[in-house]
Automatic annotation (TrEMBL):
Alphabetical list of Pfam families matching this protein: DUF1093
PANTHER family (alphabetical): HYPOTHETICAL CYTOSOLIC PROTEIN, YXEA FAMILY PROTEIN
Entries under Gene3D superfamilies matching the protein: 2.40.50.480
Species per Swiss-Prot/TrEMBL record: Candidatus Enterococcus myersii
Name this polypeptide is given: YxeA family protein
Length: 117
């Protein structure tokens, strides 16, 4: 029995450490926001022989509990995002915004929706 415990213990500790590291570096919390302002067109660099621009947004966002977080992110392409679109934004506490996607207003949690309207 001791042999099994001493064999399994290092594996369990390593697995726990890997899980913690992965969650800390790649895990996200979901926040909800609304595009209520025009983004700022920002020069990113050169690509394929032409200048590359993206739109930068600085918005207030709210999680499902209604807690606020100011976020800063870029559009994916060189055109502004739809005005009054609702987004779910995936935020990592170390790296900031990891991604976002547009959602319908009906998908907003009630507490977040109250702050966004």
């Amino acid at each position: 029995m001791k042999k099994i415990i001493f064999t399994a213990l290092p594996f369990l500790l390593a697995s726990g450490g890997i899980f913690y590291w992965y969650h800390d570096n790649y895990g996200t919390n979901d926040y909800y926001t609304k595009i209520n302002q025009a983004g700022t067109r920002t020069y990113i660099g050169e690509g394929a022989g032409h200048k590359v621009y993206k739109y930068r947004y600085k918005l207030a966002s709210f999680n499902a509990c209604g807690e606020e977080l100011d976020i800063d992110f870029n559009s994916r392409k060189d055109h502004p995002m739809k005005k009054d679109a609702y987004l779910i934004v995936h935020v990592n506490h170390k790296k900031g915004v990891m991604g976002w996607e547009e959602i319908a207003k009906s998908q907003l949690p009630k507490k977040a929706e109250n702050h966004l309207n």
